[in-house]
Amino acid sequence: MEIVVVGRHTEVADRFRRHVEDKLTKVTQLAPHARRVDVEVTRENNPRLSEVREKVELTVRDKGPVIRAEAAADDRFGALDMALDKLSERLRRSRDRRKDHRRRANDVMAAVDVRPYEEVAAETAATAEPAVLTEPGDAVEHQLGDSPVVIRQKLHRAEPMTIDDAVYQMEMVGHDFFLFIDKESARPAAVYRRKGWTYGVIELDSQVDGVEPVTELV
User: Fold this and answer.
1) Core-most of 59, 89, 168, 177, by most CB within 10 Å?
2) What is the pLDDT of residues 181-190, one digit of tens each?
3) What CA–CA distance (Å, rounded) separates 141 from 172?
4) How far, in Å, CA of 159 to CA of 99, rounded?
5) Closest Cα to residue 49, out of 25, 23, 21, 74?
6) How far apart are CA 197 and CA 12, in angstroms?
7) Phi-psi bin for 11: left (phi > 0), alpha (psi -120 to 50), beta?
């Protein structure tokens, strides 16, 4: 399994890289087929955010859905431990879900590319127009005119799935929302987190070309 450690706005010492490799041995136990784990370390230089100035984001790329977790603390070692705890729990849930799906062979979860933002080759200038994204996973940021507002664009691959699978995918990447194509209605939709263990779903009143609504027979 390949482990890639990168730093954003910070340098990553060899000591921390070795510590990461030791800690991530647990990933191979929970995801034996994982091909790669991306570790991104970000440092916040704002003194008001000193308690969460170090953020560690972990992304496991397996044969199935991408699984991600992140945490922030006053030092990167503590942030790594917290992120790893979250990641381990999501890997267990993913493993258990795969076992359950093998028992229900007709219920196959669609794999969706939900990779996190990676280093953009070159940032656009303040006056640059938004780029046209063509490949899933492409991401770019641009400034909105002369204002301090920064817009981030990203292109995802969307495949039809059930609402249950969309909620699961959202939980696996730790987001508060998830975009998908509803398998039953063939409409673009978004599932989002509400209070407690409740979720909401928003659908657009337009079907996706080439996707047929699924009607289950009772």
Assistant:
1) 59
2) 998 888 899 9
3) 25
4) 22
5) 74
6) 37
7) beta
Q: What is the pLDDT of residues 41-93, one digit of tens each?
A: 998 877 777 787 899 999 998 776 788 899 999 999 999 999 999 998 888 88
Q: How many beta carbons lie within 10 A of that of residue 27, not counting itself?
A: 21
For tokens 């705890």, what's the residue? Answer: 85
Note the pLDDT of residue 195.
78
Residue 84 has φ and ψ, to the nearest 5°, of -65, -35
CA distances from 121 to 39, 65, 103, 152 (A): 18, 25, 44, 14
- The structure tokens listed for 154 are 């990203």
Give the C-alpha separation, 37 to 25, whole Å. Answer: 11
Question: Are 80 and 19 contacting, i.e. CB atoms less than 8 angstroms apart?
Answer: yes
Contact 57, 43 (CB under 8 A): no
CA-CA distance, 177 to 193, in Å (whole number)? 6
